[in-house]
Amino acid sequence: MSPLKFLLCMILLIGSGAAEDVPFVFDETISDVADYTSSQIERLYISSPQLAGIPTVIQALDNETMVFPITGGGSTPLGIKEKKVGEFKAVFNSRVEPENPKVREEALLFAAKYPGDLTIDQIGSIYHYLKNGENPIKGWSYIRDPRGTDYFNYANASLRIGKAAGCAGAGDCDDFAILMAALVESIGGTTRIILANNNTTGGHAYAEVYLGNLNAPDSQVEGIISWLRQEYETDKIYTHIDTDTREVWLNLDWGKDEKGNYHPGAPIFQGDKHIVICIRDDIGKTPLKIPENYKFQEKETFKPPLSSRVSSSPNSLDHSGDKEYEIDNPFEKSSPLSLPIQQSSQVPGSDYIPLGTQPTSLAKPVNAP
């Protein structure tokens, strides 16, 4: 986003109707999340060192108002402007345009590499192309907005400019989020866009894709998480969970994980406030599926009781009958997981830097993709 963009609209007038989604990390200690109560999910969020500095996501109502400064093309705000959440939604809905022939064609080319009915590997194919490109096409090219302007590219424009420049697309973080959402929506997926603010590193925008509902009879959420961990050789997949509806959303941001790799489900942007813009929310949500012919690589791993990971509660799950395996215990003193929680102002592998004397303005990546 451009410098001081909205600041990031983060003086938000929120009424009692706002709901929140909890950041959640699926790792090697987590299983059977569908059996967890809302309070258990919330306690895991609070106690997770990986989620330190990441706020819950606020689902503001369309008639609620965001207040942000007018920069006037410079670095000093010249006044205050207000905009309804619904107005932002209308802008993003118009820019995402999943039915645009150019957007649809591009999405089909990526999905066709992995035939199936809206499978997670199709989402991975889209993500890989936008972030990394495909020889000779380079990955996303970061270009900032004009001074003093909140400019949002149409998805087809980002593609067209990218083709001419020999890259997957061009623009800033909100343009990347818009095109990501457009391509996923074009093959039947459900997405949303998060507006995030960090008072130290600035503002950001990123997309998420709907994985499904944990409590649905045919839910494949945890199977998808297993596929992601195996495919990208990572122990951690970052999501948001609505503790009321049990819906799970996967992070599609351009940040890298602790190993320096880019993939769906990498760490969530840290901040002080995250606000969700639910695009195309007049249409029912469509869950993702496990890739066809996918076989789980079952391996016996240590799973400590839930009571050892969150504070005790009458609602805690009883894992007294869980089987323990003879492998290294990640909770021994020698394990990194046994270290005290460290509050961090930086996402591992983040591309963002502080702005010094302008702590609430919007920072840009140092090494923009």
Model description:
The chain has 369 residues and is α+β, with helices and mostly antiparallel strands. The protein has one domain (6-297). The chain has helices spanning 38-47, 85-96, 101-111, 120-132, 155-165, 173-186, 221-231, and strands spanning 11-13, 19-26, 57-59, 65-70, 79-84, 133-134, 137-138, 141-142, 170-171, 191-198, 202-213, 237-241, 247-251, 273-277. Strands 2-3-14-10-11-13-12 form a 7-stranded mixed beta barrel, surrounded by 4 helices. A 3-stranded antiparallel β-sheet has the order 1-4-5. The chain has a two-stranded antiparallel ribbon with strand order 6-7. Helix 3 (101-111) packs across helix 6 (173-186), helix 4 packs antiparallel against helix 6 (173-186) and helix 5 (155-165) packs across helix 6 (173-186). The longest helix is centred in the middle third of the chain and has 14 residues, at 173-186. The protein is globular. InterPro entries: Papain-like_cys_pep_sf, Transglutaminase-like. It comes from Methanothrix soehngenii (strain ATCC 5969 / DSM 3671 / JCM 10134 / NBRC 103675 / OCM 69 / GP-6) (Methanosaeta concilii). Residues 168-211 form the Transglutaminase-like domain.
